[in-house]
Amino acid sequence: MPIAGLVIGVEPQFMHQAAQAISTLKGIEIYGWNEDNIVAVVESKTSKEIEQAQHELQQQPGVLSVSVTYLNVEDEVCP
Amino acid sequence: MLTRREFIKRSAAITAASFVGMNLPFKMDRAFAEAEADKWVRGTCRLCGTGCRVDLGLKNGKPVVIRGVADSRTNLGYLCMKGMLFYKVMGHPDRLKKPLYRAKKTDKFKEIPWDQALDIAAKEFAKAVKANGNDSVAYYGSGQAQTEETYLFQKVFRAGLRTNNVEGNPRLCMASAAVGYMTSFGADEPIGGYANIEKARCFFIIGSNMAEAHPVVFRRVMRRKLDNPKEVTVINVDPRISPTSRIADMHVQFKPGTDLALLNAMAYVIIEERLYDENFLKDYAAFKKQGEKGPETVDFEAYKAFLADYTPEKASKICGGNVTPDLIRKVARSFAQSGATVSMWTMGLNQRLHGVWANNMVHNLHILTGQLCKPGADSLSLTGQPNACGGVREAGGLCHLLPGHRAVDNEKARAQIEELWGVPAGRIPPKPGLHTVAMFQAVNEGKIKAIWINCTSPAQSLPNMEIYRKGMAREDVFVMVSDIFPTRTTELANLILPAAFHFEKTGVYGCTERRSQLTPKAVNPPGEAKPEVWMVREWALKLAKELNDPVIAKCVEPFVGLHEDYDLPKAIWTEYSQKITANQDNDLRGATYEVLSKMPDGVQWPAPTEEFALKGGTVTKFLRGSDPMADKEAKDDKPYQFYARPDRKLYIWLRPYKPAAEEPDAEYPIYLSTGRIIDHWHTSSMTGRIPELMRANPYAFVEIHPKDAQKLSIAPNDMVEVESRRGKCLLPAKVYEGPIEGMVFVYWHDMYEDRMINKVTKDAFDANSKEPEFKICACRIKRVAGPQALKPFVVTM
Fold it and tell me: Is B59 in contact with A78 (Cβ distance < 8 A)?
């Protein structure tokens, strides 16, 4: 079950809307936010789903960038 | 009690939060932190030229966790998804694991032992040299090869095989930038670097979709803009609206190729409105034009008169699109008046018939306004590959360049290198070798009889590729390929050598901003795959016997017996950095393996001493107090010392607007341009094998402006034929307001036979840089069928 830490850059005026939309996405947990960044963690069965989640995030209102800062794939590599 | 999964999630969250200065209501438990991985190896990402630093965590020898390096000045800890998934290349089932050989290209490959493979390679190269002379052999390398590899290859070819037929794929992407820097500043590579991004007040992004091609650098630009929305202006100049345009205050959209008129018009406005820096021009600039016999010096008034042909009114008519005289004036004022403008560009300027001119024109604007060597001001060419700068441009990977930024046709430079290598005087031929297009034309003509292609796939990446595929398929040309995966080029090989991937070997990459970074070996390569430095050394020893030429053995003599995991690349780097770069502008003597191992983000040259290198090296070239060579070479008390030229000047070039090699006409009425998409890289031989990335973009498509689509009755996802005078492709349509009306855009990564767009592109090239004009040619399009189910494709054995 890979786990990724993400920093999502959001246009400030869309922050509320983006956070709300992101919180409804499956497997994504918001850990914190400031004026224009959301820190979130994605937990999924495969890293394929993480890539899928990243694409979904990119489509949310006001999202400018999705950067990955951490990826643990231990369970996938060493089942 | 926290479960292990909870702990990992918290690790992920804390790591992410730390990058944006956010505090979370929990801390890491140290015992858990140590259990994440039993070994961490710090290296550089390979999948673009940014130079992002990454920590690869291993458990029982396998990669299990990846995190960005927070104190790295290149990526500040951030990575893109493509970079995050690079570990999947290691241990992929398609990896080449054993040498493969076939005498005829119509035969099937057979696995053979290494010793036999190297024997064949040595005999075939020796046969070519004996029968057809030294220039009948060639090396074609890569901006992904490590510096140690490129350096050793070129040493053996130039001094051993006595040919300058040494080239690399950076000719296809960075050559115009290199010649642009040489002609404008007198020295290759940027004066500044990424550090200026956080100080800039204007970004001039031209011919670059950095949001997709350099997402981590783009994030820095985006942050600067978001943190200072009123103070910072972002100008995006491109015939295509791309994801980069999303943060732009102004998007300048024009007919492909007419940016040459636009850039001159900006210079016109800067002069007309007296926005230039008179003192900077007086102290540091000279004006040049190309005369019949070479460069001629002119004066400011001549430049002003030359620009009279580029008033905003005249230029806006040439440019078309949304370019108005008012927009040109507005852009020029923003550029000039910010006092801290960073220009950034990539292939949109470089891959052009007049790519060097386009580069010169951007530099002109910086020289005119004195926006160089100052905080937040730089003319910064972004590099496409991780080691196009460090390996190919600096270490002698192009046909006209010796290592350490020396010209092949310079007798003194050749003599110096021969002495440093301990080979007889006159051993390196004086004539530059064949540049990329000429090299593969020579293959087509049967003049090159044996070629070693390393870590790149010209059978897919050359423009007008079909004619070059036919050449490489000739039975009288011995084609040898070292790579990690099967590609369109291995399909045309006689001999395939399985190579170690990044992190499976040790070596240095030098990224966009003159920064060299070490990546040590972390895991074993699969099967019998080997580092290229080992291959070259063993091959050279056999070649020396075949040709009965001890000088070939002499080229690798210092490295005999050293283990390929670390000692061998270290010895090669030591020879290169300590002997070859000493007192050159890319002086790397301070950047020893020991120093590079200590630095989170490597060293920027010049860095002549270890003490200086341990502080990070030179942030701003030519600036006294920052660049030790500027202090050493200083001739007066001015703050900037442009020591690259005897006259100490930067050159403003009078360059005209000229059309592309092939403009649309009645028969082929539409512009074609090509480029990258975020999930894929180059010919997708790596990213195409990562299911997550392939799934996101399983095939290339053609982007069509809605008005063109309407005129041609093309609906989204219809199958569309894109045809030029050279060839055609069949691709699904994406209809949207990206490309300007009258232009289509196609991604070039796809390996599928019908979707390789380089069958359609043109192989005309810049007369100065020899870089082909991938970005512009004429085509026609037509709807062939409705939407079809398509499958992703990668070449397999």
Answer: yes
- Whole-number Å distance between alpha carbons of B537 and B559: 8
- CA torsion sign for B600, B530, B110, B439 is positive
In the block, residue with structure tokens 């791309």: B242
Beta bridge partners of B728: B723
Write the DSSP assignment of B159-185 as a string of letters: IIS----EEEGGGGTTHHHHHHHHHHH
CA distance, residue B55 to nearest chain A CA (Å): 10
Q: Do B64 and A72 touch (CB under 8 A)?
A: yes
For the stretch B666-723, pLDDT in tens is: 999 999 999 998 889 999 999 999 887 887 788 999 999 999 999 999 999 999 999 9
Cα distance from N-terminal residue to C-terminal residue, chain B = 51
Question: In whole numbers, what is the pLDDT of chain B averaged over residues?
Answer: 95
Q: Could you tell me the sign of the dihedral formed by the alpha carbons of B81, B83, B87, B92, in that order?
A: positive
Q: Which residues pair with B732 in a beta bridge?
A: B719
Is B16–A31 a contact, with Cβ atoms under 8 angstroms apart?
yes
CA distance A23 to chain B (A): 15
Give dist(CA B772, CA B747) in Å, integer: 17
Find the closest chain A residue to B57 by CA distance: A72
Q: Which class for B660: exposed (0-12), middle (13-18), buried (19 or more C-beta within 10 A)? A: buried
Cite the active site residues of B: 82, 173-174, 347, 384-385
- What tokens does A44 get? 């999924």
pLDDT tens profile B531-549: 999 999 999 999 999 999 9
Q: Strand A63-72 vs strand B39-44: parallel, antiparallel, or unpaired?
A: unpaired
Instruction: Sort out which chain A residues have CB atoms less than 8 A from B36's CB and list them.
Output: 72
Chain centroid to CA B198: 23
Long-range contacts formed by B622-625: CB under 8 A, 24+ apart: B622/B191, B622/B372, B622/B373, B623/B373
Contact at CB, A47 and B24, closer than 8 angstroms: no
Q: Does residue B34 contact residue B59 with C-beta atoms inside 8 Å?
A: no
Closest CA to B756 of B473, B466, B484, B467: B466
pTM of the model: 0.91
* Cβ-contact B507, B518 below 8 angstroms: yes
Question: What is the ipTM, given to two decimal places?
Answer: 0.92
Which residues are B675's β-sheet partners? B747
Closest partner residue to B64 (CB to CB) among A40, A43, A78 is A78
At B652, is the secondary structure helix, strand, or coil? strand
Work out the minimum CA distance from B757 to partner chain A, whole angstroms. Answer: 26
Residues of A in contact with B87 (CB under 8 A): 73
CA–CA separation, B272 and B299 (whole Å): 16
E strands, B220-338, in order: 233-237, 250-252, 285-291, 294-298
Inter-chain residue contact B84 with A71, CB threshold 8 Å: yes
Which of A39, A55, A67 is opposite residue B79, by nearest beta carbon? A67
CB B660 within 8 Å of CB B776: yes
